[in-house]
User: Which sequence fits this backbone?
């Protein structure tokens, strides 16, 4: 009974804490409204350029290995929504490597909240709002109404994979001294791979994209599921997301124990 | 009544592995496959205890192991070996519990949101520390009053002066009534008046709330004004742990005495006295206290010359500390 | 003239210090090449020619266009910062022309970026697809066209950068410019793939003379095309050279009035 009450209490307190962060983040949007609007709208414009490119491409070649223009648009919906969602909720997801390398983790470790979630939510990624908004608009235009619930689920699972992948790359900083470059390139790479039709890849590349660099699970599988739902692949995707997130948490938590703070000196000879 | 120990450190050690990397791209590749690793002892068998309500200066040159020690004490770093108990907790095992008991101010790492008013950060901290709403309000009112920051609360932090900012930083770290306060360079970059004000507040706080303070600073004025006890660490080891005053006695082996004369000064020689500077009506001497006392010297000089003014100064504590740093 | 050569030389040597940075940049280019190779393979599947391009020409085209566009060093940001924090005032007092200084500096780094990217990409493509029928005699003319393309790119970028005197963040404009190069500049796909009306518009705008034209001459050289491209590139360079100069003069005057 007491335990139940305690856990209820702590959920309430965590919610309060998240709410306060949300408030302070909103205030920082107000404070930086110009750069918020610029960054968000630039991302929006960026996405428009890509739609134009694909429109040109599919105008010339109506189908690439069974993917048509609407499939590409669905792919775009999934990647912009998932990437945008991760960015709006966990604005620091691309910066964990840097935070660990520069010893900024000290700040979070000295406070009584769970450090990983605290790091992730403590910053807003302005351009992510542009991505998310674009994705939502594109979804309304190109995804049939009946498929929107499924889309929502797929976007959520996709976000988990992105988040887990980002945490893994960032946490490598605990082990390598700095994984900033690896994390930047890795995230850039997976974003790029997830922004092209999965159907063009075959054989070894396909396996690679469904395991080590899971760009296939981020957009490829969701698009196929939207085309033709298949329980086997859906469950596989869910399981994969769970595994990636689990591994990422283990790597991070083990890493904290090895954390060397800002004192690590990389002596050059 | 004997105060209890709030900080207990026993035989603490921390070794870092350092990867040596040759310069350039090839060097990076090489170190990837065959890393050249050496170990250094950042903290080497350190032990000390601190009682509740003490203000202790914890100082040492850069790279002495000072901040490593503090990070272990707060649970940020895991030690290689040794025992630590802070407010009854083992920091690296019960970091979260401990964090409710510790407040920290880092002069060079502000925790306030730069573009937002301080009150927003305070509110956020109240949620991070899960403070009761009413309790938090009264605590905030109290701190706002003694720190005199009422007018500053609604101004974005970036527009506050450094001194005002530091006051707000300290308030932010005190909201949750910590038992232990870590102050790292709390007066860095401030002007003299602001420095004095901050010191005054720290002293008052220590008196009123019995909060234990561990202070690191490069400003010896901070140390002399605030601390009774000083722990000096160098090369990962404690090289001095005692009262600030006895530090003076132990290391102060000489005094500087400057004298203004009525008549032109004529040079003399006396065992234990070195003439540092001599002009027509003025001279300054360094006297070696192991050979001659101040009284003996003054008796001597009064007999010899007619004196207008005399000024006696000790070696500044800064030099004492420098001397200690230089010892191997 | 000699001092600009020296500026170029020292930056050329200095660039080797950024080898790690370049390495990661190169990985990204290779990734794009890899993706597009897969995509084009799927599109071609069985077809010999699309709009006069064979599969391998299409990939080599992409490599050339991509190497040109992505080799541009980020001096817009640098200029933007220099203007914003007033550092430019010190640079104006130096005994060299500010614009030529940046030209020399960025060009030297660009040549390295371009060469290394191209070589790495060429190795990858050679293994993925194989070579194509390259006309050795066109090499000299190509180098000339490449030089002009990069010069044109420099002046457009520079005029954007110098808008920092009025705009807080000209870097975002340069970002749009990049996107234009990617799309209607023909970096990702040649203009032949575009719908006719769009290809016509893109074909007269300056962007295609930076990416599309040099890359097309690389895979399918003809003297008629060469002279055409050459003449238009020169005209655009003169136009944007003048624009750059005017913006620069006005900006500096504004700086003197406002005292930075």
Assistant:
């Amino acid at each position: 009974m007491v335990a139940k009450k305690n856990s209820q209490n702590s959920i309430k307190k965590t919610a309060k804490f998240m709410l306060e962060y949300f408030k302070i983040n909103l205030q920082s949007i107000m404070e930086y409204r110009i750069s918020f609007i610029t960054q968000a709208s630039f991302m929006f414009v960026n996405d428009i350029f890509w739609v134009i490119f694909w429109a040109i491409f599919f105008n010339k070649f109506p189908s690439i290995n069974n993917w048509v223009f609407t499939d590409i648009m669905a792919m775009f919906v999934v990647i912009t929504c998932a990437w945008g969602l991760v960015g709006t909720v966990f604005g620091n997801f691309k910066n964990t490597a840097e935070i660990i390398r520069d010893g900024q983790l000290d700040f979070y470790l000295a406070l009584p909240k769970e450090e990983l979630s605290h790091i992730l939510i403590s910053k807003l990624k302005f351009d992510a709002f542009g991505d998310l908004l674009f994705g939502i608009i594109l979804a309304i235009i190109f995804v049939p109404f009946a498929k929107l619930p499924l889309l929502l689920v797929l976007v959520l699972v996709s976000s988990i994979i992105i988040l887990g992948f980002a945490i893994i790359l960032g946490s490598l900083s605990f082990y390598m001294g700095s994984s900033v470059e690896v994390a930047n390139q890795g995230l850039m790479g997976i974003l790029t791979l997830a922004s092209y039709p999965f159907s063009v890849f075959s054989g070894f590349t396909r396996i690679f994209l469904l395991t080590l660099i899971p760009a296939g699970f981020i957009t490829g599988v969701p698009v196929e599921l939207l085309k033709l739902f298949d329980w086997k692949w859906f469950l596989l995707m869910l399981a994969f997301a769970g595994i990636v997130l689990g591994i990422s948490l283990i790597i991070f938590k083990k890493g904290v124990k090895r954390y060397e703070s800002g004192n690590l000196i990389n002596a050059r000879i | 009544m004997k105060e209890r120990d709030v900080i207990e450190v026993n035989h603490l050690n921390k070794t870092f592995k350092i990867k040596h990397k040759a310069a350039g791209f090839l060097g990076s590749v090489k170190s990837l496959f065959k890393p050249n690793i050496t170990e250094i002892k950042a903290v080497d068998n350190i032990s000390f205890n601190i009682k509740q309500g003490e203000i202790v200066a914890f100082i040492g040159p850069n790279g002495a192991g000072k901040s490593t020690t503090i990070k272990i004490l707060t649970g940020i770093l895991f030690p290689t070996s040794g025992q630590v108990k802070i407010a009854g907790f083992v920091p690296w095992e019960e970091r979260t519990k401990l964090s409710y008991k510790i407040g920290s101010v880092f002069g060079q790492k502000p925790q306030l949101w730069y573009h937002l008013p301080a009150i927003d950060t305070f509110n956020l901290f109240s949620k991070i520390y899960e403070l009761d709403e009413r309790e938090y309000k009264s605590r905030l009112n109290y701190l706002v009053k003694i720190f005199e920051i009422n007018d500053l609360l609604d101004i974005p932090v970036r527009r506050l002066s450094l001194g005002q900012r530091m006051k707000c930083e300290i308030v932010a770290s005190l909201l949750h009534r910590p038992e232990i306060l870590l102050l790292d360079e709390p007066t860095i970059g401030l002007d003299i008046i602001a420095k004095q004000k901050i010191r005054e507040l720290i002293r008052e706080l220590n008196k009123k709330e019995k909060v234990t303070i561990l202070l690191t600073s490069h400003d010896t004025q901070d140390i002399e004004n605030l601390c009774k006890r000083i722990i000096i660490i160098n090369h990962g080891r404690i090289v001095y742990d005692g009262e600030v005053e006895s530090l003076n006695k132990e290391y102060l082996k000489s005094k500087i005495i400057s004298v203004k004369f009525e008549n032109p000064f004529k040079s003399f020689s006396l065992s234990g006295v070195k003439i540092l500077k001599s002009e027509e009506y003025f001279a300054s001497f360094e006297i070696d206290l192991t050979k001659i006392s101040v009284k003996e010297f003054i008796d001597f000089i009064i007999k010899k010359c007619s004196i207008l003014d005399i000024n006696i100064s000790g070696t500044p504590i800064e030099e004492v500390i420098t001397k200690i740093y230089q010892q191997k | 003239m000699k001092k600009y050569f020296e500026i170029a030389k020292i930056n050329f040597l200095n660039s080797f210090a950024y080898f790690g940075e370049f390495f990661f940049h190169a990985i990204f280019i290779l990734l794009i090449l890899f993706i597009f190779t897969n995509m084009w393979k799927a599109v071609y599947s069985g077809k010999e020619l699309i709009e006069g391009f064979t599969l391998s020409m299409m990939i080599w085209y992409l490599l050339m266009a991509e190497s040109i566009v992505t080799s541009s060093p980020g001096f817009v940001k640098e200029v933007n910062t220099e203007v914003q924090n007033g550092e430019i005032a010190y640079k104006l007092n130096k005994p060299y022309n500010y614009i030529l200084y940046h030209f020399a500096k960025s060009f030297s780094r660009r040549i390295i970026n371009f060469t290394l990217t191209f070589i790495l990409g060429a190795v990858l493509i050679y293994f993925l697809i194989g070579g194509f029928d390259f006309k050795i005699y066109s090499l000299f003319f190509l180098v000339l066209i490449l030089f002009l393309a990069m010069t044109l790119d420099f002046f457009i970028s520079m005029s954007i950068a110098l808008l920092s005197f009025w705009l807080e963040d000209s870097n975002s404009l340069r970002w749009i410019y990049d996107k234009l190069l990617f799309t209607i500049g023909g970096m990702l796909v040649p203009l032949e793939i575009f719908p006719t009306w769009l290809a016509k518009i893109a074909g007269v705008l300056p962007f295609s003379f930076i990416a599309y034209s040099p890359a097309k001459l690389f895979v399918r050289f003809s003297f008629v095309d060469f002279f055409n491209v050459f003449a238009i590139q020169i005209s655009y360079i003169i136009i944007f050279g003048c624009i750059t100069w005017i913006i620069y003069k006005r900006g500096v005057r504004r700086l003197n009035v406002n005292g930075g």
Notes: The first strand of chain B starts at residue 5 and ends at 20. Chain B has a mean pLDDT of 85. The radius of gyration of chain B is 25 Å. Residues 5-249 of chain B form a domain with the Rossmann fold fold (CATH 3.40.50.300).
